[in-house]
Amino acid sequence: MLSSGVQLITRKVQLARSSVGSSFRSYMDLKTLISSLNDFASLSYAESWDNVGLLVEPSPPHTVSTLFLTNDLTEEVMEEALQKKADLILSYHPPIFQPMKRVTWASWAERLVIQALEKRVAIYSPHTAYDAAPQGVNSWLAKGLGNCTSRPILPSKAAKCPTEGTHRIEFSVNYSQDLDKVLSAVKGIAGVSVTTSAARTDDEEYTRVSLNCTQEALLQVVAFLSQNREFYQKTEILSLEKPLLLQTGMGRICTLEEPVSLAIMVERIKRHLKLSHLRLSLGLQRTLESQVRVVALCAGSGRSVLRDVRADLYLTGELPHHDVLHAASHGISVILCEHSNTERGFLSDLREMLGAQLENKINIILSEADKDPLHVV
């Protein structure tokens, strides 16, 4: 009897261990995780006015086993995140946007910071970096339109120029002794890279010198050349532009493979965003039976992105009254779905994509308390 009892207890212990093991998630160091989030969508894609990245950091070391996703970090959502033992909150909208002069219990944003630090919860916000990303919010919003091709309305620029420096100076030097003096001088200036090539014009041989310069080095190079004009000729100063990223940027112009009526498009959008109602402005001389082939969209607020874009339909969360009138006067219909309704659904896709990127090393939870603050009554 004793032997049988021991075997039964042992078996129960093994089952318990098996159950625990099946739900186990490992930890990730916060800095390693933030690096992976930045790899998913570079913060360089974000607009210059935005406040993105790691906004609240508990004292290191800090490890993360549960990542909590929300569109807006409200006090209700923070309570949910704490109940679910979140170590890092990814809030699409930055809860810290305007500079804080103090951190007290006086405002909801300050209270969020206090709670996060007291409970050792980090806060990260990607916002417009995720808007611009090729696999980001606007691309997700475009999925609701049907089969289409799309491109950014405002393409982003690469974080860096393809070569070092911000400017290029090119000039010609005719004589080898002059070339040696010039190269010796410019190579001594920090932030300058030099290339030379042989050239010939009208039976005259010379050397073409090309200097890539940082902003600071440019001033020094120009000062040297202005004091030694006898050494060179045919000078050009070029500003080096960062190349455009053709699949990355704000908004999307979407061209449907097959045009559909505006009425059908309305139903597609409501189904994609899980909405029972939205707001519709008909363009001049347009009806619900008018055909839609080109849709210009922008998640959140489309004010700075959509104006004067040629399309059959604008899709966004919110647009000022006079911008709607302006679009309508040009025969463009407008669909408004409220700001965060055009963003929140992306988080479900994000959870899957981050899970794959992070190799399911941590638990990723989607907020249930997060919701649009506006509703139809």
Chain-wise SSE layout:
Blueprint: H1 2-22, E1 28-29, H2 30-40, E2 53-56, E3 63-64, E4 66-70, H3 75-83, E5 88-91, H4 108-118, E6 122-125, H5 128-132, H6 137-142, E7 148-151, E8 154-157, E9 167-173, H7 176-186, E10 192-201, E11 204-213, H8 215-227, E12 233-239, E13 244-250, E14 252-261, H9 262-273, E15 279-281, E16 291-301, H10 303-306, E17 313-318, H11 321-329, E18 333-336, H12 346-357, E19 363-366
Parallel strand pairs: 4-5, 4-19, 5-6, 16-17, 17-18
Antiparallel strand pairs: 1-3, 2-6, 7-14, 8-13, 9-11, 9-12, 10-11, 14-16, 15-18
Number of strand elements:
19
Spatial arrangement of strands, main beta sheet: 7-14-16-17-18-15
Euclidean distance between termini CA atoms = 69 Å
Main sheet properties: 6 strands, mixed
Give the overall shape, derived from the CA principal axes. globular
Rg to the nearest angstrom?
A: 29 Å
Helices, by number, come to 12
Low-pLDDT runs = 1-24
Overall residue-averaged pLDDT value: 90
Helix content: 25-40%
Task: Quote the beta fraction.
Answer: 25-35%
Structural class: alpha/beta
